[in-house]
Amino acid sequence: MYSVRIALAIAVFTIFAANATWALPGLPGDALEDRAPEQAALSARGYYLGRFGVIRRLNQPQALGCLNGFEIQSHRGYPTLPENAFSSVVVAFAAKFNAVEVDARQLRDGTWVLNHDESTQRTMLTRSNKTKLRNMDRSDWTQSTLRNRLGQQVNEQAEDLATIASGAFQAQSPGQTLNIELKDNRGINCQDLGQLNETATLFLSAGQVSYSSMNGVKPLACMREHNPEAYLALIQGPSRKALEKWAAANHGEELSKLNGNRRLRAAAQMATEAFGSYKYPSWSSTAKLQELRRTLGGKVGLHVEISDLKADPGLVARAHSAGVKLMTYTLTDNDSHLNDLLALKSRGAMPDGAIVDSTPIKTCKMLGLE
């Protein structure tokens, strides 16, 4: 049953891709034929509609990311599709992000799936009415229906990691990777992470998969044992200032009713529920960056919250000196993230890339790198 489901997923992707693309005069072979008026308008601006309706560069249809080698990863898949979904991962690869970032968790029976939260309440509707991943098995999962990013039910069912990896294999171009964030690894041992790597590399090569974690270097060091070729990134937990900004943006009305220490404790509890903690050790000093490089070896990175990098732009030079790639993420909105990156660019302190919630064309245009 397991292999049949993966074969079916590959067949569906292949049929969809074949039927969705045609050769149009003057346009790449994957241009959509039934969108001629839009193709004409986009062509005049140097773009076209490619597979799955994503906007691509006309003169460089295979180019990844932005100019100057600035790397962009799609956050939980394509920004307009359900997060961590089969469709979202496939379309994000077709859109030519450098990497597609997803979130891996384990079900009760050991099955690896993609979901950001410990609960499915925000992302899907389950037939079994189970919402905690620790109470679900693969049957519960694959009989669930997804919600879009507005919380509305859509006509797509949940798939496990193996099935989604099969779709990624079909859609990936050379140089693209699937960045799997290891979520909540407190109860997961190194053997479990080895199984995760085996699942991810059923179809993808070892170098086509990368791993990231906000839970310290231990799970990443374990992954290095299982996958010597993978890029490994420690996600630097946000500073207290960044968490306070997130709490104000997402829970401002609730917090406004509290004062003093009660407000601080409430914000800390909200941050802990959302991110696992409200205090994180810093890895931004030269000594800690060198330790990170020594511990993980190979290709290694540090991913930091954008407001923390704005407060310490010298981190870019320190990371590069230590041989560590530096990328940013945000706790707030995407446009603010890009505007902050633009400000860093003007100061000569751009990181190597960012995890974003916008399309490659919009992202690169806003950064002046299109």
Automatic annotation (TrEMBL):
<dbReference type="InterPro" id="IPR030395">
    <property type="entry name" value="GP_PDE_dom"/>
</dbReference>
<feature type="domain" description="GP-PDE">
    <location>
        <begin position="70"/>
        <end position="366"/>
    </location>
</feature>
<dbReference type="GO" id="GO:0008081">
    <property type="term" value="F:phosphoric diester hydrolase activity"/>
</dbReference>
<protein>
    <submittedName>
        <fullName>Glycerophosphoryl diester phosphodiesterase</fullName>
    </submittedName>
</protein>
<dbReference type="GO" id="GO:0006629">
    <property type="term" value="P:lipid metabolic process"/>
</dbReference>
<dbReference type="InterPro" id="IPR017946">
    <property type="entry name" value="PLC-like_Pdiesterase_TIM-brl"/>
</dbReference>
<dbReference type="Pfam" id="PF03009">
    <property type="entry name" value="GDPD"/>
</dbReference>
